[in-house]
Amino acid sequence: MATDFRLKDQLPQLTKRLVDTYASLGTINHLGHCPLPNYEEVISVIHDLNEILYPGFRSREGLHRGNVEFYVGDLVDRLHDCLTRQIGRALRHEAGATDSCTEEEDYEALGQAKTLLFLDRLPELRSTLATDVQAAYDGDPACKCRDEVIFCYPGLEAITVYRLAHLLYELDIPFIPRMMSEWAHSRTGIDIHPGATIGNYFFIDHGTGVVIGETCHIGEHVKVYQGVTLGALSFDTDGEGNLVRGQKRHPTIEDRVVIYANATILGGETVIGHDAVIGSSVWITRSVAPRTTVLLEKPQLRMRAEV
Amino acid sequence: MATDFRLKDQLPQLTKRLVDTYASLGTINHLGHCPLPNYEEVISVIHDLNEILYPGFRSREGLHRGNVEFYVGDLVDRLHDCLTRQIGRALRHEAGATDSCTEEEDYEALGQAKTLLFLDRLPELRSTLATDVQAAYDGDPACKCRDEVIFCYPGLEAITVYRLAHLLYELDIPFIPRMMSEWAHSRTGIDIHPGATIGNYFFIDHGTGVVIGETCHIGEHVKVYQGVTLGALSFDTDGEGNLVRGQKRHPTIEDRVVIYANATILGGETVIGHDAVIGSSVWITRSVAPRTTVLLEKPQLRMRAEV
Amino acid sequence: MATDFRLKDQLPQLTKRLVDTYASLGTINHLGHCPLPNYEEVISVIHDLNEILYPGFRSREGLHRGNVEFYVGDLVDRLHDCLTRQIGRALRHEAGATDSCTEEEDYEALGQAKTLLFLDRLPELRSTLATDVQAAYDGDPACKCRDEVIFCYPGLEAITVYRLAHLLYELDIPFIPRMMSEWAHSRTGIDIHPGATIGNYFFIDHGTGVVIGETCHIGEHVKVYQGVTLGALSFDTDGEGNLVRGQKRHPTIEDRVVIYANATILGGETVIGHDAVIGSSVWITRSVAPRTTVLLEKPQLRMRAEV
Amino acid sequence: MATDFRLKDQLPQLTKRLVDTYASLGTINHLGHCPLPNYEEVISVIHDLNEILYPGFRSREGLHRGNVEFYVGDLVDRLHDCLTRQIGRALRHEAGATDSCTEEEDYEALGQAKTLLFLDRLPELRSTLATDVQAAYDGDPACKCRDEVIFCYPGLEAITVYRLAHLLYELDIPFIPRMMSEWAHSRTGIDIHPGATIGNYFFIDHGTGVVIGETCHIGEHVKVYQGVTLGALSFDTDGEGNLVRGQKRHPTIEDRVVIYANATILGGETVIGHDAVIGSSVWITRSVAPRTTVLLEKPQLRMRAEV
Amino acid sequence: MATDFRLKDQLPQLTKRLVDTYASLGTINHLGHCPLPNYEEVISVIHDLNEILYPGFRSREGLHRGNVEFYVGDLVDRLHDCLTRQIGRALRHEAGATDSCTEEEDYEALGQAKTLLFLDRLPELRSTLATDVQAAYDGDPACKCRDEVIFCYPGLEAITVYRLAHLLYELDIPFIPRMMSEWAHSRTGIDIHPGATIGNYFFIDHGTGVVIGETCHIGEHVKVYQGVTLGALSFDTDGEGNLVRGQKRHPTIEDRVVIYANATILGGETVIGHDAVIGSSVWITRSVAPRTTVLLEKPQLRMRAEV
Amino acid sequence: MATDFRLKDQLPQLTKRLVDTYASLGTINHLGHCPLPNYEEVISVIHDLNEILYPGFRSREGLHRGNVEFYVGDLVDRLHDCLTRQIGRALRHEAGATDSCTEEEDYEALGQAKTLLFLDRLPELRSTLATDVQAAYDGDPACKCRDEVIFCYPGLEAITVYRLAHLLYELDIPFIPRMMSEWAHSRTGIDIHPGATIGNYFFIDHGTGVVIGETCHIGEHVKVYQGVTLGALSFDTDGEGNLVRGQKRHPTIEDRVVIYANATILGGETVIGHDAVIGSSVWITRSVAPRTTVLLEKPQLRMRAEV
To answer: pTM for the full model?
Structure first.
């Protein structure tokens, strides 16, 4: 090796220059505060919840009626403790807690209360997820059996995480829902904001590139294909040019609508009526009446035969 | 910590409610059955196959002619054992095996037979993959050398997994091909169904959002860019409204076709003739003659200069 | 188990056939050479750089002004050693080094020199990243606070890795920039070539499917949404049909341009003038004047009400 | 690096020579047989049993009455499966099973039966262990509280593993008891053969070098210090010079005996009567009456003052 | 597999019986309390302290004057946090803290205060350890260089852990010193109670079986070989038969004493005068004058020539 | 938590004080030098060698004649590389290499040469180890079969590591033999110096506390029990009081000698003649004629019956 150790003498000086930027550029570091929610912990929560929601399909083998209550009871207890801690951290951070950390107990108690409300919703959530699995089986001719959906379908993975994150979002828990949904986004390419509301029997096929915005309302039995955007048309700004946050900016999709690949539907006032079909690559910024099929007009293509 | 232990007293009751849903919602749990194929094992198989297919490029360093046979021979032996077990599980599960597991040995013997057929195809597969690497080098002006393709190109990663999964698919092995292709999908955003048939010298650039359906036929020397969908136009249903499964639903792409980014080609009877070029964002549901270039017509844009 | 051990007798023969292909298909194996850059090491470098760039937000908890210099100083030292080694390997491999490895020290010394130049740029890079965080907060009405951007936004993750990879690219380091950018691509679906040049205050929302080509020039305060392609129109070939490498093939985007979802902008001579707005799904191959808004014309849709 | 790759050419030849010894020296390799009990699995069984026997003291934190049944129930289920498999392997191996492995199911069924008998004894075992903990607290003036015994005392660790191994030994399970006791030996320096029988309230202090032979009988309330050997005097051989296996070769220690450090007691017919005290470093090969104290006579020392 | 799933039906009943013993045998479980010090954390503290005390000899390679302050500063900070937490737990547990855990902060503050006192002693401790290393080099003719002592000598490992545990013992920290010393005991067979006081230049050779009791006083330049016991002669009991705790029960060893293998020295009033030599296997319960050599008298052996 | 962050302000000052001792106490740190042999690497070498010496008994399951050559060949190759590197480091360090590391290649070449000599001895070593296994089976009436010896006997574990370390010692490799033998010492309590010479059919039973010195000569068919010391009588010093290193200081044990538990045999000129038997706890500093049995004379015990 020809590493020259003397050249490393400049590293302490470089370190000092870096550390100086932590004072001058304080917005992108987080020093001296109480800890933020821990990413690895939040992801492990998703894994454990998947074990509970789909027992026998994930890591743990050999579950049967005689042992599953032990397994689930043990996981629920650990989830309680882990979520209590992470939600407490998220609440404290949002509240702009000071360095002294002297009030932590209050946030942790609040975290526990919200954790219990969240866990209480899980049995009901399984009913909803069963409809999503059924919808995937009914909607994909390449699907051989329901187990395949639970095993392999990224759409179901993204929807499951969305439904968990949405429960937390409804409980006004900051940061964590978004951390969860971005984890699912990273794995599936499907970006569903935890704030969206989505009915039963939801099916996303292939899914890469799907974006579903924060204020979307989606009914039941809706099917969505890869690359579909349910987005905002434009953003209102207030008199000082700042974004107005909190408005309905994304469309409403009624029951039994099918939206084919790469279609784009924009705008908070756009309503796609029930039983409508939106064709592949269609771009829509206005409402569509129920039972309407919208397709690209015979495409304007330029054909050029090779000489 | 202000966690109130008494509040945890409700967790056993919650556990019971969750477990009750395992009886009432039995479609989304898998209890008391013989084990399903193990996801981690299947993924480790992909990693080991990559070590064999591209020796010296993946984890193991220091391979040379004198030791590579030992390394590969040891991996092949382990792959045999692991695949035999996982394929046996998949076959048993598909057969609707009962709880008693008394017939396991038959499925494992069948698993071994299929494993040997699969492994036997690997030397030949390397020839095919060499053409894919060459195609990437020939097709991307940003590519400096072939090694870079093997090292960094998500397209090659997705195609490699597809070709492995396709071999398993041809052997009528359930679940595992799809588990493999969804793993590649998650890492690359490229979703190639293991049932598709694809010729040599296949190149996918960038790749995010590419979807290639189960019944596609793709010739040799085909190039595909990000966001391309080779999909189904609509799904036939039988008299009772159920999907008809097994038909050719996806297009045929002949030799030397280039399909630019975000183009959409739909329908089982659509044939893109050899040497055709399909432009970016084009949407096609009909066949295209050989040697034809299809581009978007001068786009209908609304230009609005700012006041 | 019904595994038949005698059937395994064919595995050594299979191994031999595989190893034979390493001679006959030598382009896709790497035997007997000095080691290539190690993928896991390169990824760990990204993780460590993230710890330095956004201290307190990633793995390490409990950082404060009193200990952060120790933490960062220790990381910088380890980064120096690791990068020196990996860059040395990359340089040696690019130089077509022979089996004997006798010249390794020269490449490692060169690797150290480039490493020091790279590390020297990090303090300045933090200023740039602070503008990117600000741009995300300013640009997304769903964003509650800056911390959320650093924590959850895949756009920022991709941009951060791009900016690191770009520094290495500017230092003429082979392989490693691309390995980094493909890692980010895999996690975010955002594919930014390390060769692109991108100004401050860059924001990518959602991001899946974004492709930014090697020779793009992007100004300051630019916003890009999911599925946007900034690509090449066609590739020039020389007299012998080989690709001409190294030309400007991708567009120029001036300051304060907004490009909405799934828009496609192609061509090395295409310039999108400052303050222009490119609408969702628009397809452009020509330059656009400053301050122009380009939208899809009232789309040509076929509406069909159900009978 | 100056590694000479050509010198590595002799390694394949060396490998061949090594492999040749597997045929010529077949007693010390185990090829082509069904698998032996797995060491890591057996050790993990000890860890899990410790979690059950001393809940709240080992790895898992936060156990309370509300969750402990879930935790223990889940562990018991996993222990059942793991022990069934490992005991089945041990039984099969002892039976000299052939290569074909066709009878494995019989051994696994037998393994399960023995596993259930073993698990059934655990509640009762806790009563015995509670007496051992009490004995350590009563016997060591340096001990501050009972928790310290469970936490830190190697004597209790060795006794716990002995009591578990002894249960398995009584069930005629081969290999596994000895694997367990050697693990404890390695950690504590205390070597208790699983065949020994030992009463309640057993205490070993410090313990390094203690050896307790296979046919020892030890009563209740016995205390033993470091370096004590309860061993065999000599081994009988049969007419052909082979060892006679299975005789009582080790001493009997009656209730309330104390044996101080480094004492040696040998012989299968040696009985140390109840309430006897055996002094440090004493060497005994004959029986000692009850209530007798045996000390080294005023030691024969040679004192030599320095000139 | 022939596992009979119906036989597993008895496991829940077994679990219940086990859990019932947690109420009836409450002394050997720890349920519903605040957590005990964590064993893995305590051991990791020892590892980190070794990195600081002998930098460059343990895990971290590549330390030099330019980076060692960063490395050590970062470790010290983490040690502070980890020890504060674990010492807080130990203090709370010793105080018989109730289930409610409402007072944790007090114990953690106390833990921090003690942690800072402990860390403050580390620079001075290095001076002492340097004398121990020197003593080993001077005392073992098989030792080639000082580095070998730090690298390989179990005696130094045990002494180092003892000296750390003794610092904590002096600060009245419960549990943790003993956890540390038992860890060293397990690895080296050397059992030094943290309460003993031991002077500089202490050397233990081989060491297996060495026991040094809680109230030993050992001077400077003392050498001890394997199997040496410095123990108690007998234990006083009070009127009710309970052990009297806290008395001086173990011997005093003055400066420059050498104690050869397997010697036993007992009693709190026994003083081995300075410069004495205690021969191998000698058993002593009375004081020995300075500068005296004590050897076994010509041993009483029975020689029997074979016929 | 009540951690007071302000109190942590003293940690940087403490760090500085610690780092200052690295200059003032330079003998116990290793800064700015080329790296020492890596402990974890050396231990992994032992594990790999065990896999080769006893194939089928250690971690890897499923070995049979068809795959064992691949497995062993791959391990041998990796062992070559790893040992070459570690031996090179050890040689460089012993040579007092300077900071500049410029001569590393020479040491690495020397390391490779010694590695090849070492590996070349492994086939022959297996013959020797087979005699040791046989000796254990023949010598222990509690032993049921040879497999149990390989699986569970700490004596065999220690002897195996000794024989490996001795091969390295004979090749004049510094540090590494001792690191290996201390690892075995830690696990088994058996301390055999790598310099001792030991014949075939060596058996150590129980073993804790056994010490075998550097210059011992041990013949064939020797049996040794726990606590046996084969040590030095006293150390010669030269005129300046320094130890004379390198003399024969430890006894010679001829063929077929049995040495029972806790016996002590001292002195470089002490010879225990062939076929002698040394009884338990005997202490010997003179030679013993062949075929002699040496026992403790009827021990001088003080019996005291309780009143």
So the answer is: 0.93
